[in-house]
Write a structure and sequence with these properties.
Largest sheet: 8 strands, antiparallel
Radius of gyration: 29 Å
Strand content: 15-25%
Order of helices and strands: EHHEEHHHEEHEHEEEHEE
Distance between the termini: 92 Å
Structural class: alpha+beta
Number of helices: 8
Shape: elongated
Length: about 270
């Protein structure tokens, strides 16, 4: 005699909820062999056990329920092989995407750990600047906060469209002539730090070199204090500034809602 299982029994054997089986029935993926017309109880035949195994295994392999439903309508060795190979490509794409996300988080964590351990963030230091790729977008005049924000958002949008390996660290380039004329917040370029790439459009390699740097803490409107600190230091130490300013946002609205905790690193190449 053919054996039947109640929905509770089948759910218990597979360690899934009865609601899952009810949902599978609702979408036509896995329907009971028999429904009691008197009480609406669902019963499943022993021949259906392998089908449910197949569904749950495919779900664990990352297939959507819609993909599984289509596959079960008519499947054999050949189309199962094709389906699995296609799923392997999907997984490899996801791995690449997750590695990119992992790299972005690691990059952010390293910067946050680094700046947290600096004892005097307002000190001016001369350091070796390691090569750094940045993806850039121009800021439209009059170089207001709004236009800088728009250019930064354009960086994120275009980077996503092109699949660029950008980090979630924004920055701006402020011309040296703007700094000297005390137009400290008038950046002409917005950028995102990024990993090395073979693409070239709107991408600049900041080469290794000798840099002078300091940090600005808090309200960006007051960043002029940090710039004057650098200029005074360079004059005192006989250092010639040979580049525009590169500002890297270390801690910003992404990692803190308190503007007093915002941290910007300012760098100039010097000789």
């Amino acid at each position: 005699m053919k054996r039947y299982f109640s929905i509770g029994e089948l759910a218990g054997y597979q360690n899934i909820s009865k609601q899952t089986l009810i949902y599978y029935d609702k979408i036509g993926l896995f329907c009971p062999h028999y429904v009691d017309p008197n009480n609406g109880y669902r019963y499943y035949s022993e021949n259906q056990l392998d089908i449910l195994d197949t569904i749950l295994i495919m779900k664990n392999l990352g297939f959507s329920l819609e993909d599984i439903k289509r596959h079960l309508e008519d499947y054999n060795l050949d189309n199962s092989r094709s389906l699995m190979k296609n799923q392997l490509r999907v997984i490899e794409d996801k791995i690449r995407e997750l590695n990119l996300i992992k790299g972005r988080i690691l990059h952010k964590c390293r910067w946050l750990d680094y700046v947290k351990n600096i004892k005097d963030r307002e000190a001016v230091t001369v350091e070796k600047f390691d090569p750094q790729y940045i993806f850039c977008m121009p800021v439209k005049p009059p170089y207001s906060y709004t236009n800088i924000s728009i250019a930064t958002k354009a960086c994120f949008t275009e980077a996503a469209h092109r699949g660029l390996p950008v980090f979630f660290q924004s920055g701006v380039i402020v011309p040296l002539e703007h700094i000297k004329s005390e137009r400290y917040t008038e950046a002409v370029t917005a950028f995102l730090s990024m990993a090395e790439t073979e693409q070239t459009d709107n991408i600049i390699l900041l080469k290794a070199g000798r840099c002078v740097s300091t940090y600005h803490l808090g309200d960006y409107d007051l960043i002029g204090t940090a710039y004057r600190r650098i200029l005074d230091y360079c004059a005192k130490e006989g250092l010639d500034i040979i580049s525009d300013s590169y500002e890297f946002c270390i801690n910003d609205y992404i990692t803190s809602k308190n503007t007093d905790e915002y941290i910007t690193k300012i760098c100039f190449y010097v000789r």
